[in-house]
Amino acid sequence: MIKPKVLIVGKANVGKSTLFNRIIGEKKSIVHDLPGVTRDFVYGETEWDGVSFTVIDTCGIFENAQSYIEEKQKSLIFQSREEAALILFVVDGRNGLTSEDFYIADNLKRYSNKVILVANKAENYDKFEIEVKPELYSLGFGDIIPVSAEHNRNITELLDEIVNFLVKHELTSFIEDAEQTSEEIIKVAIVGRPNVGKSSLFNSIIGIERALVSEIPGTTRDSIDYEVEIEGQKFSFIDTAGLRKKSTVSYGSIEMFSISRSIRAIERSDVVVLVVDALEGITRQDKSIIGLAEDRGKASVIVFNKWDLVKNKQQKKEEFLSSIDKEFFFVNYSPIVFTSAAKKWGIDELIASIEEANRSRNKRIQTSLLNAALERYIMASPPPIKKGKRIKFYYAAQVGIRPPVFVFYTNLPNDVPKYYQQGLRNMIRNYVDPFIGSPIFLKFKESKPSRKKSDIKGKIQSSKK
């Protein structure tokens, strides 16, 4: 069952993101004193009293939008009223109402049967009851729930009201087995430099406009999650802010928090989709970003977006494919997809590549196949001599998945050179399984040969004669 959506709306700087973070129990939305920090929809999952639901944080609504972005934000929020099971209309419980509150109230009147009016920043309860609360009734939504998200006051009462509403209207989605759910859903982080089309690609995949798209670099600030099912497979797509060079980001800035969110999105994903601007080609920053994914053991897919704008497509495609081994040699196992988010080109191929990369990251292989390949590789490329001794490999085994991890038992585990380690990785991909889209990690442990392990050892020794 799809979880009911609880939409948080209100004017700027009334503490919507703080309330969102408090409800879901983690600091997911960016919180800052400046109004208008949140630009995109931010999704979070939570449960209360056995009932699970999705909470959606939104940007502040401005009565008189001063820019294209503010107007677009407002339009997206108002479009979401229909699909929300419940709307939390957040107002300032400390300073009272403004014309923007009445403007928002007018736009919610049609949905008043599913609106809960929440007065945030009401930590001074006596003042709220005497000076502020009577005014709030003029909005026309009945009872008011005073809370202080910052000080964690009355949040449980708000959660009770949310759950009571969902149960009363039969909109509940009870918690499923967590392990089963996590295995079914492929978590995908869409990453890249600013303005390469990540949000447009995100919207093309999920089929509805959720991420704010404009020509202004850095429009996305938060990481945006959205669950979707495609031909029976569930995905959780995460659109992220563009990752810039550290030298261009000032400490304590909103952009710094956005970068932190993007890195966290990579860390909690299964597959990372790196979006490259096909008009600009691969940059040093692209290599840094995909390097983060590989270091953290994530599967990856490389997307060249804006393909509809490229001239001499066949020639350009050959150039990109030939440059992968040079520029992205450390992730040359990643599938390459050419897309146009604007025209929805390549979306099916991208989804297929994501699924293949995820399968590779979860794949296990037989120990016998691995050791047969190791024997074959050592016969062709004998290990080097270190400290006056020949490095010997006795056997190998896969010990982990997500990502695949292989242990090689050897007499000199700390002396296997980098080039030979890479050779062993290539051996696995060439002789056992290509593990398309997934990194593979190697470990080396000290071991002495036993009778059962003597087969590989004996053939290694015979290959040296």
Automatic annotation (TrEMBL):
Family the UniProt entry places it in: Belongs to the TRAFAC class TrmE-Era-EngA-EngB-Septin-like GTPase superfamily. EngA (Der) GTPase family.
Organismal lineage: Bacteria, Thermotogati, Thermotogota, Thermotogae, Petrotogales
Protein origin, superkingdom: Bacteria
Domain EngA-type G: start-end pairs: 4-170, 186-362
Organism encoding this protein: Defluviitoga tunisiensis
HAMAP family in the cross-refs: GTPase_Der
Name assigned to this protein: GTPase Der
Residues engaged in binding GTP 2: 192-199, 239-243, 305-308
GO terms assigned for molecular function: GTP binding; ribosome binding
